[in-house]
Amino acid sequence: MTVTAAPPTTFDSLDPATGSVVAAFPVDTSEDVAAAVERARPAADWWRDLGFDGRKKRLRAWRSIIASRLDEFAELIHRENGKPIFDAIGELSIAIEHLDWASGAAAKVLGRRRVGSGLLAMNQSASIEYLPYGVVGVIGPWNYPVHTPMGSISYALAAGNAVVFKPSEFTPAIGKWLVDTFAEVVPEQPVFQLVTGFGATGNALCTAGVGKLAFTGSTATGKKVMAACAPTLTPVVIECGGKDALIVAADADVGAAVDAAVWGGLSNAGQTCAGVERVYAVASVYDEFVAGVTRAAAKIRGGADASADYGPITMPSQVEIIRQHIDGAIADGGRAIVGGADSVHAPFVQPVVLVDVPEHSAAVQEETFGPTITIAKVRDEAEAIERANASRYGLGAAVFSANRGREIAEQLSCGCVSINSAISFAMVPELPFGGVRDSGFGRIHGADGLREFAWPRSVTSVRFPAPLKVTTFQHPKYARVLVTKMVRARWGRSR
Ligand code: NDP
Predict the structure, then answer these.
(1) Is the pLDDT of residue 1 over 90?
(2) pLDDT value, residue 282
(3) Residue 239 catalytic?
(4) Nearest to 80 by CA among 169, 205, 193
(5) What is the DSSP pairing of strand 335-338 with strand 436-437?
(6) Which of 2, 176, 336, 370 could disulfide-pair with 322, CB 3.0 to 4.6 Å?
(7) Cα–Cα distance between 202 and 172 in angstroms, integer?
(8) Strand 162-166 to strand 135-139: parallel, antiparallel, or no bridges (unpaired)?
(9) CB 40 within 8 A of CB 190
(10) CB atoms within 10 A of CB 407
């Protein structure tokens, strides 16, 4: 007789640096998730009816709680995700800016506004307003366990939705902290709830009847989420990975480019969706740039102590992918000028800088998500642009150039570009964030990010009888001649 073990009903979240248990969480079943979504439905109506001003007050009170308890929250992020306290504070400061902006801008972006009614409906007024979906499901990753899901949560809440949040299995305590503090300012209804577990719990959220699903994570999982949402036509916003390039033009401030490449590639142990993974440096500045990166990267160190520049690899299975990319790059003819194959000591990976790596190598093509950077020498800016664009990903990019930054940025096929800095676009609440191709679609942040969590309702209203009514079977006999003349007069001549 075969005895199959019952699936676990709880799981432990671990400190990735030490393996010690941070907290235990339930593995929520599809019934648990469905119940959370059902609880959220009346809460969503109540939250919507608070109106923009009522929600703004609550969201700003939540913002103040997060800000006043910054140290406590940063300490938890450090323990559960592994990143240094300073990085956790930085992540929180950006998330707070977004929360504040979304809560303040929602009325202007989503509230009813008049639009022109055009010639054909000149007797009518026309207006548009954006309405919440009701319950929004948010599935988040572990690498920026606050900033990333809050890019959906803050904007969905500001738009008037209730949210059911499934954090990564690696960062559930961080998700719980967010939900618990929100409940302090919104105690009346379960407007923001947590469900925890593994992929199956996320899948259950996709099929639980939410009005919209916001996913941030890997491209492979993003495809599964879309497939799970397809049968019910549940709309999705999909924020996936990247393989962002940094271009160093001939007229670049090389010192600034070095600093940005090293920080953009190595901070957060390289576990940044819009982190710098590839650099294309024009031949005339290549040697100076490589020498600078070599010096700077050699001083950076991953570890769990207070003086470490970055922490461990949060997800244990990622260590093997990083190792494979480094080994593959060297086997393909690349050279490690900082670190190398022996830089990988799970759970830490020390900085690795690779040069002469062929473009077909996994280290150039696939998301490494580790503290590694490839640097390639290119003939000119045109070749840098061509290689930067030759990727299945299209999330972000950085350009270093004194005079040609905008010109180069305009030729990059990706969702966000920073000129003379790295990843700055993520800090600007008014800028939409997201990618193209395998980096996903839809946008978080900015006005587009608010509209992502609301559907437009268009309304016309008759102000006075139309001089010539055409939307009737009772139209006069001369209507055909008149309309034909009118269309010809208006559009028939080429201008
Ligand atoms: P994953 O795709 O592994 O997981 C993302 C989330 O999806 C987790 O909560 C995960 O749960 C859940 N999940 C897993 N399987 C399913 C399923 N079948 N149905 C529904 N949900 C599921 O990504 P990671 O957590 O490893 O995050 C890293 C990735 O996120 C990188 O590719 C990174 O580039 C990307 N990312 C993109 C950002 C962007 O804005 N574009 C920002 C930040 C990260 P569980 O953890 O329990 O498996």
Answers:
(1) no
(2) 98
(3) yes
(4) 169
(5) unpaired
(6) 370
(7) 13
(8) parallel
(9) yes
(10) 13
User: Catalytic residue at 273?
Assistant: yes
How far apart (Å, rounded) are the C-alpha atoms in residues 162 and 254?
47
Report which residue type is found at 474: Q
Sort strands 393-394 and 352-355 into parallel, antiparallel or unpaired. Answer: unpaired
Q: Within 6 Å (CB) of ligand 1, which residues are found?
A: 139-144, 148, 166, 168-170, 198-199, 202-203, 206, 216-218, 221, 224-225, 239-242, 273, 315, 367, 369, 395
Question: For 426, what's the count of Cα atoms within 13 Å in the CB-facing half-sphere?
Answer: 25
Residue of 273, 277, 366, 452 marked active site: 273
**Core vs surface per residue 329-365: b (16+ CB within 10 A) or e:** bbebebebbbbbeebbeebbbbbbbbbebeeebbbbb
91 and 427 Cβ atoms separated by less than 8 Å:
no
Q: Name which of 361, 387, 373 is nearest 257 in CA terms.
A: 373
Tokens of 345: 């000591």
Nearest to 167 by CA among 321, 20, 13: 13
Tokens of 332: 């393909």
> Token pair of 129, please?
């307003």
Whether this model's pTM surpasses 0.90:
yes
459: three-class secondary structure by DSSP: strand
Catalytic residue among 91, 239, 277, 452: 239
Question: Please, which residues have CB within 8 angstroms of residue 96's CB and are 6 or more apart in sequence?
Answer: 63, 66, 67
Nearest CA to ligand 1 atom 34: 241
Distance CA 79, CA 75 (A): 6
Atom of ligand 1 nearest to the CA of 167: 9
Do the Cβ atoms of 245 and 397 come closer than 8 Å? yes
Distance CA 240, CA 392 (A): 12
User: pLDDT (tens digit, 9 = 90+) per residue, 357-391?
Assistant: 999 999 999 999 999 999 999 999 999 999 999 99
The rounded Å distance from CA 464 to ligand 1 centre is 54
Q: What's the whole-number average pLDDT of the chain?
A: 97
- Residue 494: pLDDT band (50, 70, 90) is confident
Nearest to 141 by CA among 31, 253, 274: 274
Please tell me the distance from the alpha carbon of residue 289 to that of residue 298, in angstroms, as a whole number.
14
Number of C-beta neighbours around residue 292 at 10 A = 19
